[in-house]
Amino acid sequence: MIRPDGNPLVTRMRGFGTTIFAEMSALALAHDAINLGQGFPDSPGPQAVLDAAIAAIAAGRNQYPPGRGIPQLREAIAAHEQYWYGLDYDPETEVLVTAGATEALAASILALVEPGDEVLAFEPFYDAYAADVALAQGALVPVRLDAPSFALDEARLKDAVTERSRVLILNSPHNPTGHVFSRAELEAIARVAKEHDLLVITDEVYEHLAFDGREHIPFATLPGMRERTVTISSAGKTFSTTGWKVGWACAQRELIDAVTTTKQFLTYVNAGPFQEGAAVGLTLPAHEFAAIRDGLQAQRDLLVPALRDAGFEVSPVEGGYFAVADAAPLGVTDAAAFCRELPERVGVAAVPMSAFYADASGVASLVRFAFCKRPEVLVAAANRLRNATL
Fold it and tell me: Domain ranges in the chain?
C-alpha cells in the first residue's frame, strides 16, 4: 500500500496555496481582525435568487438532479450566453452544470490533459490550476504577468509553447491581480492557440465584475475560438452565493461529452435546489447585474485609497474581488511574514501573493486584499489601515 507521505502526487499537491488561506483566516479569528484574505462576500445576494432556492427546498426538490443539471438552469445558461455575448450553445448537448467552477476546471483538465501534456497558465494563478494539472499528471507551465499592470507579454507566451503544449488556461477578470484582458491581448492569445492547436479552458467567474466601463470579452467570441474553448463560470461570485457551489461549462458537444465523462465520477451531481436559484439569477434584468458590478466597484473605491494612504503601492484593479498591493515602500521584503503579523498589529488580514506563484521570486513584497465585503466592514478596515503604523 502507498501511504500518503510516500505518494509523489500528494507531495506535489501540498502547498498549492490553500494552507496559507486557512492560516490567515485563523489569525484573523484569533485577533478579532477584519478578514480581507479569503475572497467570499458577506452580503446575502439578490433576494429573488435566494427565494427560488428556498422555494425549491420547501417543495421537496432535494434529491439528485439530472446528471448534466436541471433543464431550467441549462436553458438559463444558454440564454445568458446568447443575451450577453451572442454565443449560441445547445442547452441539451453543450452545457454542463458542475459543483462550482472549481469542479468544472478539474473535470475539464482531467478530461483534456494526458500524462505528460503541458498546460500553460498565466501566473499568478488560482491555486486549483496547479493541483488539477498535477492530478492529470500534466506539467504546468507558468507564463508570468508582471506587476503592476499584469498585462500580457505575447513574446513570453510564445516562448512558453512547446511541442508538448496541449491546453492553455485563461482567467479574466483575473484572480488575484484584478486585470481584465483587453481585446488586443485576447487576440494575441488566440493567434498562439490557433498556431499551436491549443485547447483553451477559460475561467470567467468574475465575468460581470469588470469596472470603469471595461468590457469582459469571452474568449469563445473571438473568431475560430468557440470550437476550441471550454468556457467556465459560476453563480457564486456574481450572486454572492459562493457556498452553493453551482458552476457550469459551455463548449462544443465533443468537449462537453469528455468533461461530463470525468465530472460524473467527481461529484456525480450537486446542489439541486440551489440550481433553481442560479437559474433565476441568470435571468435577472441587465440593470441588476449592473448594480452588482457598481456595488463591487464602490467597495473597491473604499479600500484602495486607504491602502495607498497606508503607504502601499496598489496595482490597477480593473475587475473581480481583489486588490494587489506592494508593501515594498513600507520596507517589507517578506509578504508572508508581514501578513502573519498584520492581524495582530493592525486588525486586518490579507494573504501574500506568493501563494499564487509556482516560483515566487521577485514578488516577495506583494499582498492581496479582498474588497468583496460590506461597505461598513471596508470602512472599518480602511480606518484601521490608515491609522496603523506599518
Answer: 4-45+287-387, 47-283
The CATH code belonging to domain 47-283 is 3.40.640.10
Alpha-carbon gap, residue 252 to 93, rounded angstroms:
8
Start-end of H helices in the chain: 8-13, 18-30, 47-58, 71-85, 100-112, 128-135, 154-160, 183-195, 236-239, 253-263, 272-282, 286-309, 335-346, 375-387
How far, in Å, CA of 94 to CA of 109, rounded?
17
Phi, psi of 72 (to 5 degrees): -65, -30
CATH no. for 4-45+287-387: 3.90.1150.10
Longest distance between any two alpha carbons in the chain, whole Å: 58
Half-sphere exposure for 320 (CA within 13 Å, toward CB): 26
CB count, 10 Å around CB of 102? 20
- Per-chain mean pLDDT for the chain: 95
Find the range with the poorest average confidence among 10-14, 216-220, 320-324.
Answer: 10-14
Centroid of chain to Cα 281: 19
Q: Are 50 and 383 in contact (CB under 8 A)?
A: no
pLDDT at residue 1 greater than cutoff 50: no
At 26-68, the pLDDT tens digits run 999 999 999 999 899 999 999 999 999 999 999 999 999 999 9
- DSSP state, residue 176: T
Q: What are the residues facing 319 on neighbouring strands? A: 210
Q: Is the pTM of this model over 0.90?
A: yes
